[in-house]
Specification:
The radius of gyration is 14 Å and the shape is globular. Helix 1 packs parallel to helix 2 (about 85-95). The protein has helices at about 45-65, 85-95, and strands spanning about 5, 20-25, 25-30, 70-80, 105-110, 120-125. The chain has two helices and six strands, in the order E-E-E-H-E-H-E-E.
Length: about 130
């Protein structure tokens, strides 16, 4: 039976999707963009501040499901400009232990919701 994960600490979904879905010991976190949950406003113009906020939003959904950064198995990072990769990666590295970092894909896309520069989703394992 799937369980819908919701937290007021991450932005409200802007469509027919959940912030996260847990089932069978797995957690699927929807793509998070750099909006602050409390205000609904974009955080920063630069890729570093946007990456930090997107990851903080992912972290809020993880916490709401009882998961942590250590339980993340895979992430996907969507960038509107791969020239932002190094700056994004510097912030991203602060959230994961290099020895146990998850698998990751990073792709450049033409456009993201609300014209943000980064969106990040993940899959994590849940401990019963």
């Amino acid at each position: 039976m799937k369980k819908i994960i919701y937290t007021s600490q991450a932005p409200e979904p802007v469509g027919p999707y959940s912030q996260g879905v847990a089932q069978g010991g797995m957690l699927f976190v929807s793509g998070q963009i750099p909006f602050e949950a409390a205000t609904g406003e974009l955080v920063g113009e630069d890729i570093a501040s946007q990456t930090k906020q997107a990851l903080d939003n992912v972290g809020a959904v993880l916490a709401a499901a009882g998961a942590s950064w250590e339980s993340v198995l895979k992430t996907t990072v969507f960038l509107t400009d791969l020239k932002d990769f190094a700056a994004m990666n510097e912030v991203y590295a602060g959230y994961f232990d290099p020895a146990t970092a998850p698998a990751r894909a990073c792709v450049e896309v033409a456009r993201l919701p609300k014209d943000v520069r980064v969106e990040i989703d993940c899959i994590a394992a849940l401990v019963d």
